[in-house]
Amino acid sequence: MKDYYIGGIERLEKQAQLVVNKAFQEAFLQDYSKEVLESCNENRLKDFFRTIQNLVAIETSPLTIDQVKQILLASETGGVALQAFTNYTCKRCNTVNTWHNSAVPMLCDKCREEAALKIINSKVLLQLNINVTNRKEEII
Ligand SMILES: [Zn+2]
User: What share of residues in the chain are helix, strand, coil (percent, to 5)?
Assistant: First the structure.
């Protein structure tokens, strides 16, 4: 598995060099090098790989996490809202939260952020962006 993570890290480093090099310096307190990766244990490599996967996905996504969160929120809330602070239970983590009106969302902010990150990480948005770009070129 170490080779799998090192290969993945190298692929991401080619894709988004600045992002990966910055994350590498923060994590290992030195410049990016394959030798440092090879000297790491598997768990540290796995954690670093997951961290930079998220960072590169965010960097290359056509939408920000906040924009995806707003889209999710729009799909969660609806109906007639009475202007009164209302408690609700997050459908994912079961924490009790407060919303500013009675049209409460399904998720708490933390779970919505995790969902937004999963959507950005799924590459669906990136593919959508590529398709839109291709379409633009066809029109021109
Ligand atoms: Zn939650």
Answer: 65, 5, 30
Q: How far is CA 103 from CA 94, 98, 100, 108, in A?
A: 18, 11, 9, 13
**116 vs 110: CA distance, rounded Å:** 10
**Residue 71 CA to ligand 1 centre (angstroms):** 17
**Which of 67-81, 102-116, 122-136 shows the lowest mean pLDDT across its residues?**
122-136
24 C-alpha to ligand 1 centroid (Å)? 30
Distance 99 CA to ligand 1 centre (A): 13
- Residue 120 corresponds to which tokens in the numbers above? 């950005």
Q: Please tell me the pTM assigned to this model.
A: 0.70
